[in-house]
Amino acid sequence: MRVEHQIRAFEQIFKSYDGVQPLHRFLFAYFKKNKQMGSSDRRWANRYIYSFFRLGKALMKEDQLTRLAIADFLCNPTPGLVVETTLPELKDQTGLPVKEKITLIQQHFPAFKLKEVFNFKEQLSEAIDELSFFESYFTQPDLFLRVKANDISQLTKTLKENGVEAITVGPTTLALPNGTRLEQIIPDQKHFQIQDLSSQKTGDLFDPQTWDYWWDCCAASGGKSLLLHDLQPNIQLLVSDVRENSLNNLDERFRDAGLKKYQKKVLDLLLNNEVDLHHYEFDGIVLDAPCSGSGTWGRTPEMLYYFDEHKVSYFSKLQKNIAANVVKYLKDGKPLIYITCSVFKKENEEVVSWLLENLPLKLERVEVIKGYGNKADTMFAARLIKADASNL
Ligand SMILES: C[S@@+](CC[C@H](N)C(=O)[O-])C[C@H]1O[C@@H](n2cnc3c(N)ncnc32)[C@H](O)[C@@H]1O
Hints:
This protein is an alpha/beta fold.
C-alpha cells in the first residue's frame, strides 16, 4: 500500500540520519544513492522528515508513527496519507490556522506541551515571546531577498511572470515562498542578495560613515560586508574568517555587487594576530559571531532534535574571546557591532554584560530582532562604543 511505502521510506531516512551533517545535505546524498526513489517519493520523504523534526521533543512517549502524523498535521495545510490513516479524525482540519491545530492536538493528546518543541533548559533572551516562538516552528520560514530599491518592482514583475508571488516587506526586501527555485528563474543573481529579513535588519545598527575603514571579522562569504557596502558604498573594508574556503566564495559576490575596495585575510581570532594587524585601526567592526544558530532552526529543524545543549557554553566562551581580541583594533569612540543568530541569553545578553564589564566598551543600542512573527530568523545585535578606558 502507498502509505506503507511512504512510512518505510521515512523510517529508513530517520534511521540512517544521525544529525551530524545538515539534513538538506544528507538528503541530497541519500536521494542520489537511492535512485529507485522517484520525484514523488522524494517529495513525500522530504515533507515527512522535516515535519517530524519540527515537533522537536514533544510527545516523545507516543510511538513514532503517531508523532509523524501529528507533526505532518501541524506543519502542512493539506493532509498526507499518514494523517489520513493514523489520525483520520483530524484529516479534514489540516487547513486550519496553526494555532487552532495546536489546540486540537492538545485536546487529542493532553500530554502535548508546546515548550517541548524547543526543549532546552538554557534560558531564552528576555524579549522573546516563548509561545509565539515555539509555535513558529510549525511554519516553514520564507526566503528573503535584499534588492536595490530601484530594482524591486522589475524583480517582482519577473517573479510574477514565472508564477512566484513575492511580497514586498520593506523598501529593499522581498519575501518569497521557501523552496522557490530562484536560480532557474533568474540565473544572473547580480541584482539581489539572498539574506534573511532579520539579518538585513542588523544593518540598522551599523551606521557607517563616508571613508570609514570597517572590519568584518567573521565574514564567511560576506553577507554583512555587502550590507555595509549598500548602506555606505564609500568605505574601505577588511574581511576575515578562520575558514579560507568560505572567503573564496566572496570575491565573485563582491565583484557582482560593485564592492571593490576590500582586503581579505584568513585569521583565527582566538590567536594573537599582532603580526598581521599591528598597524590597523578601524572605524567600525562587525563581529557576526560563531554561535549555536538557534535563531535559525526554523530552517534546520533537525537541530530541535539533535542539538547538544552543552555547546551553548562553548560558544559563549568563544564569543567573549573573539570580542576581546578584536576590540583592541577599534578606534576610540567607534562601534563594535556584536551579532548572533542565537536565541540563548548566554550567547546574547550575557556576552554583552561580560563585554561591558571586561572591555572598554559602552552599550549604545541592543536589540533582539524577532523573526518568528515574520517567517524569518531571530537574531541578536548590539552596538557597543569603544571608550577610552580612563573615561569608564
Ligand atoms: C555567523 S558566521 C558569519 C556569517 C557571515 N558574517 C554572513 O553574514 O554570512 C560566523 C563565522 O565565524 C567564523 N569563525 C569561527 N571561529 C572563528 C575564529 N576563531 N576566528 C575567526 N573566525 C571564526 C566561522 O568560520 C563563520 O564563518
